Amino acid sequence: MSTDATAAPSRRSNDLRNYMLVTGAYWADTLTDGAIRMLVLLYFFNLGYTPFQVAMLFIFYEIFGVATNLVGGWLGARLGLKATLFGGLAIQLVALSMLAINPAWLVVPYVMAAQALSGIAKDLTKMSSKSAIKFLVPEDAQSTLFKWVSILTGSKNALKGVGFFVGGLLLTLVGFRAALFILAGLVLTALITAVVLMRGDLGVADKKATFRQIFSKNRAVNVLAAARMFLFGSRDVWFVIGLPVFLYEALGWNFWQVGGFLALWVIGYGVVQAATPGMLKRRVAGQGREPDGRTATGLAFALAAFPVGIALALLNGVEPGIVIVTGLIVFGIIFALNSAVHSYLILAYTDSDKAALNVGFYYMANALGRLIGTVLSGLIYQAHGLEGCLWAAAVFVVTAGTISLLLPVHMPRITRPIRIEKALE
Questions:
Q1: 216 within 8 A of 357, measured Cβ to Cβ
Q2: How far apart are CA 329 and CA 331, in angstroms?
C-alpha cells in the first residue's frame, strides 16, 4: 500500500477533528457574545443608566469590530488562522474576566474597554472559523464544503439567539458576576480543548500580505458594501437598544422574557438565512434568473414597509405586544432574505483571487452599519421612543434600496461554483 493511500485516511480524520474543534470554538464564542450583550444591556439599564448611556457602553465593541473586520483577513494571512482563532478566544476570556470584578468598580470607561476586547474577540474568532474551513476541505469535495459551511453558518445566528436567552436567564438566576464566571468557564474550556486537540495548521501564513490590499477597487463591491451598511443600520437602530428597553420598560417584561424573545427572533432569523443559500444555489445552477441588483433593490424597498407599519400601529394605539411580535417576525424574514442575497452578490461581483479581501471589506461595512445603528438606537429611543427608532429604520432601509439601484442588474455568466454560504454572517 502506498504512503499516500495510508496517509489519506489519517488526513481526513485530522480534517474532521479540526473542523469539529473550529466549529465548537465558534459556537462557544458566539453563545458567549450574545450572552454578554444581554447581560450588560439589562444590568446597566436596571442600575438607572439611560438608553443612550447603555448604547455608549457598546460603542467600542462596534468600533473595534469595524477595525477587526477591516484587518482580520490580513492578520489571518500574516499570522495563520490557528493563531487568530486562539487569540480571539483568549481575548474573549480577558474581556469576561475584566467584567467579573466587583460591580462597584464597573465605571463606564472600564466597561467600554472590556467591550472593545469582546468586539475584537468576536470578529477574530468569526473570521478564523469561516476562513479555516476552506483549508480543511479538498478542492474537489464541493458537497462536503457545502455541508460543513452550512452547519457552521446556519448555527451562528441560532447560537447567538441562545446566547441572548442565556444572558437574560443567568442574570435572573445567579446575577451579573456569577453569570460572567460561568461564561468565562465555557470559553476557557473551548480554548484549552482546541489547543490540546487540534492537529496541523489552518492554512499557511503569508508574510508578504500587504495591508493596502484590504480596500476594494471593485465598483460593484463598493456599492454593495454601502447598501449593506445601511441595511444593517436599519436593523440595529431599533433592535439593539430601543426594542429590549421598550419590552422591559414599557411592556413590563422581566430579564429572561426579554432575552428569550430576542433569542427566538435571532434563532428564527438564522433558520431563514441558512435556508436561503440553498434556494440561491439552485437558482445559480440554472433554475431561473440569478439574483442581481434588482433583487436586492426590491427586497430593500419591501422591507421598508414593515418598520413604517409597526410605527403607525403603535401610534394608533394597537396592542403593542401583538404589534411588536408580529411585526418583528415578518421584518426578520424579509431582512434575512435580503441579507442572504447580499451575501450571494458579494461573491458574484468579486474575482476569485480577491474574494477573501473583498468579503473582509464588505463585513467592515456591515460592522460600521451596526455601529451607527447602535449609537442611534440609544439616542433616538431616549428622545423619541421606539416609534422614532422605527422611522429611522425605515429611512435606513430606503437608503439601502436607493443605493442598490446602482448595482449591476445583468450578472455575468457563472463559470465556476460559487460558495454562497461562505459570505453569510
A1: yes
A2: 5
Helix/strand/coil percent split, the chain, to 5? 80, 0, 20
- Show the CA angle centred on residue 334, arms to residues 328 and 340, nearest 5°: 125
Angle between helices 255-284 and 320-349 (to 10 degrees): 40
DSSP 107-158: -HHHHHHHHHHHHHHHHHHHHHHHHHHHHHS-TT-HHHHHHHHHHHHHHHHH
For residues 165 and 274, the answer to whether their CB atoms sit within 8 Å is: no
In CATH terms, the fold of domain 1-146+159-212 is Growth Hormone; Chain: A; (1.20.1250)
Asked if the domains at 1-146+159-212 and 215-425 fall in one CATH topology, the answer is yes
Query: Cell 467591550 belongs to which residue?
Result: 115
Could you tell me which residues come within 8 angstroms of residue 298 by beta carbon, excluding any fewer than 6 positions away? none
In 3D space, the residue among 260, 297, 248 whose CA is nearest the CA of residue 54 turns out to be: 248
Contact 18, 199 (CB under 8 A): yes
Q: How is residue 400 written as a grid cell?
A: 439601502
Residues 382 and 54: their CA atoms lie apart, in Å, by 11
C-alpha cell at 26: 465558534
pTM: 0.71
Classify residue 205 as left (phi > 0), alpha (psi -120 to 50) or beta. Answer: beta
Are the C-beta atoms of 366 and 229 separated by less than 8 Å?
Answer: yes
For domain 215-425, the CATH architecture is Up-down Bundle (1.20)
For position 360, what pLDDT does the model report? 67
**Where along the chain do its domains lie?**
1-146+159-212, 215-425
Question: pLDDT of 203-259, one tens digit each?
Answer: 554 455 555 555 556 788 888 989 999 999 999 998 888 898 898 888 888 877 887
Number of residues that make up the chain: 425
| Residue whose grid cell is 464588505 | 362
